[in-house]
What does this fold into?
Amino acid sequence: MKKSLLVVLLGILLATVSCASAQTEPVRVQEPTIAPTAEVVKDIVTKAPAKVESSGDPVKQGYDIFTGTGGCVACHKIENIPTAIGMVGPELTYIGTDSETRQPGVSAKDYLYESIREPQAFVPEGVERSVPNLMTAAITARLTEDEVTALVAFLLEQK
It folds into this structure.
């Protein structure tokens, strides 16, 4: 029985090798060229988010940045914000409370500011990131100081 199984397997192997070694014409594949058109660039420019207008309320402005121009919702989740369903960054549903004790000797406000401007400076134990080092300072570098201050004000309200 074992001998016949071995013979069958050897036959299949030989058939596979002989088929693979048959002479065939090479298949030519033409790679697509990447050349953006003016129309595509125009679409990108016209769909860019508008700058957040100062509403006088830093928490409201921070919400607008978090859900809009800051793009935070793409990575972070906050339970009471339907668009904030990100799954690669830490969940921020209770960050206003959590940030009070994350870094001993540092205020919640300063901790959040540092977390936005220098995300790798301090990552507390127990904070899971599905993609380590994904958030870098380059992501938030385009935010002005006023925008970061507003974003911190909004995050401090998440309790």
Observations:
- The radius of gyration is 27 Å.
- The helical segments are 2-20, 38-46, 58-69, 95-98, 108-117, 137-140, 145-156.
- The CA atoms of residues 109 and 152 lie 7 Å apart.
- DSSP finds seven helices and no strands in the chain.
